[in-house]
Structure formats: C-alpha cells, structure tokens
Design goal:
CATH topology: Cytochrome Bc1 Complex, Chain C
Number of helices: 15
CATH superfamily: Cytochrome Bc1 Complex, Chain C
Number of domains: 1
Number of strands: 2
Strand order of the largest sheet: 1-2
Helix content: over 70%
CATH architecture: Up-down Bundle
Distance between the termini: 57 Å
Structural class: mainly alpha
Strand content: under 5%
CATH class: Mainly Alpha
Radius of gyration: 22 Å
Length: about 350
C-alpha cells in the first residue's frame, strides 16, 4: 500500500490533500453526535448511486414498459427485489437524515459567517433531494405512484404565477402520460445527479475549509477537545456508516418495498391517496386553506428559513439569537405536527 501511494504521489498532487487531512481537527463535545448526520446523508446518497446504476440495467421508461420492467426486476432478476428495496428505503432514510442534519446545523447556528455559503449549498441539496424523490416515485408506474405524482404535480400547479407552467413542463402536457415518465426518468437518472454531485462537492469542500461549528455555550465554557479528522474521526464516521447500513439492510430485507398493479389513468384514484411523507406537511396545509394562500405561506416561510444568515448574522446577539432558536423550534413542530395531522386524516 505504501509503494502504491508513493507512486500515486509522484503522478498526482496528493500531498496538499494529505497535509490538510492530517492537520484538520474535529471538536468533540456533548453535541458532537450531530456532526455524523451529514456523513449519514452522504452514505445514503452513495447507496442511491450504486443501486440506481444497477436498476438502470433492467429498467425501461415508457407507459408500456415501465411497470413491466419494474415487475421483472422484482420477480425475475436475481436479488432485484432487494436492490429495489434498498434503493427505495435509502431514499427515504436519506431525506430523514438530511432533515435532521439541517435542523442540527440551524440550532448550532452553523449558518453564520463564514459558513453561510455552506448553509445555502446544503439547502440546495435538500431541494434537489426532494426532486430526486418526486421524480423517482413515478418510475415504477403503479397505481399508487401514478396518483401520488398527480397529487404532487397538482400541488406544484397551485404555486402563484408560475405554477401551471411548471406543472405542464413536468407532465409534458396537461396530463400524466408516457412522456411524463421519460421526462421524470431523464431528470432522475441524468440531470439531477450531475447537478447534485457538483453542488455536493462544493458543500464538502466548504465543510473541510471552515470545519465543524462549536455551539456557543460549549465554546464559551471551553468544554470540548479536538481529535484529528484522519484517521480518528474518519474511522468513527465509517463505524456510523456501518450502523446505518445495518439498519438499511434490515428494513430492506424484512419490509421489501412493494410494487402495486400497473397504473390505469381511466380508473378513479384509490382511497387515501397521498404523496410521500416528506411532502405531507404541504399536502395538509393545502387541505386547510386555498391553494394560492397555502403555497404563498409555505414559500414565504421557506424563504425566511433560507435567508437566516442575513437576519441572524454572527454579529447579532441577545434577542435576535433567541428569536432564531424559537423560529427553528416552531418550524420543527409545525412540520411534524402537520405531517402527523395529515396521516391522521387519511
């Protein structure tokens, strides 16, 4: 291994990277567990990439072929059902991990200068993760996926001013057809991964440059120590990845992701149809008030959340800092409460 590394160093500029890895320190304190959530999110994305490529060998987009190819993966391809189940479960776990990561970053105030650009790139990755989930959900072309996607596109159509145009672009017309599958497949398998990887690379680079944020109370009390990123923290991160892989494997094997009957656009929607869990808060809000009002309210709340580095900068103290904390608590309670309420009324 040493000989191989030395030969690589002769041909590639690895010395600066090696030097940076050896000198980077990671703070360890009572809140350090939350530092692992970003790594867990990255792990689930890597699982998505590997399983997605494997599924590409057998999946065929199109109204006549999508469901048949998904059924063949589930029943004819060796371990196809397991690969698809891992892909679906890891997608949901990735969204959950990113949510937890976002709120932990928010409450640690790691969005403040000089980490504000890291915050913006993280939010971009969250938005693209939503798009990954939305575009991938339709691809099996079963009845639940079809009608849930229809609900989701209708929600997008409720956005003031540009909603109808966005919905027509997504559908490729006024209805969900085979062209919609092809558009969603192109976005899911080609366009989004390329953009996501580019933004993710920038996000990871910024994390390496600025390091991990130490909570204000911990930093004032000097109640922390540091360990080298390599190999100490990296080994711990890989251990957490192993735990995440065990959880993912158990869920995928014991609770295989189902495949319903092929979508029939002429049939009425099944009872209790709804989007994926991470869209349920918006779904419930749309039930409680007119579409334009609900979408405007949700959009305004999202914009305020995104620009928190501007209204709670590092120079702000006292009341403004407490207001940001209360806003984060309200956002978490609101999202969880609306989601629970939505499932309770199905």
């Amino acid at each position: 291994m040493g000989t191989l590394l030395s030969k690589l160093e002769e041909r590639l500029p690895l010395a600066p990277l090696k030097e940076a890895a050896l000198h980077k320190q990671v703070p360890i304190h009572k809140h350090a567990f939350w530092y692992y959530m970003g790594g867990i999110s990255l792990f689930f994305f890597l699982v998505q990439m590997v399983t997605g490529v494997l599924l590409l060998f057998h999946y065929q987009p199109g109204a006549e072929t999508a469901h048949a190819s998904a059924l063949r993966i589930m029943t004819k391809v060796d371990f196809g059902w397991l690969i698809r189940s891992i892909h679906s479960w890891s997608a949901n776990l990735m969204v959950g991990a990113i949510f937890v990561h976002m709120f932990s970053v928010f409450f640690m105030k790691a969005y403040q200068k000089p980490r504000d650009l890291t915050w913006y790139t993280g939010l971009a990755l969250l938005g693209m993760t939503f798009l990954f989930g939305f575009t991938g959900y339709l691809l099996p072309w079963d009845d639940i996926a079809f009608f849930a996607t229809k609900v989701g596109v209708d929600v997008a159509a409720g956005t003031p001013v540009i909603g109808k145009e966005i919905a027509n672009i997504l559908r490729g017309g006024t209805d969900i057809t085979g062209l919609t599958i092809q558009r969603f497949f192109a976005l899911h398998a080609v366009v989004l991964p390329g953009i996501f990887i580019a933004i993710l690379s920038l996000h990871l680079l910024l994390v390496q440059i600025h390091g991990n944020k130490i909570p204000e109370g911990v930093e004032r009390a000097n109640a922390y120590r540091t360990i080298p990123f390599f190999p100490n923290f990296l080994y711990a991160d890989l251990y957490v990845w192993l735990l995440a892989f065990n959880v993912l494997s158990i869920l995928a094997a014991i609770y295989p992701w189902p495949l319903g009957p092929e979508a029939d656009i002429l049939k009425p929607a099944p009872q209790g149809i709804h989007p994926e869990w991470y869209f349920m808060a918006q779904f419930q809000l749309l039930k409680m008030m007119p579409e334009p009002v609900a979408m405007t309210l949700f959009g305004a709340a999202g914009a305020l959340w995104a620009i928190v580095p501007l209204w709670n900068p590092a120079t702000a103290t006292g009341r403004r800092g407490k207001l940001a904390t209360y806003a984060g608590i309200a956002a978490a309670i609101g999202l969880i409460g609306l989601t629970i309420l939505a499932y309770g009324k199905l």
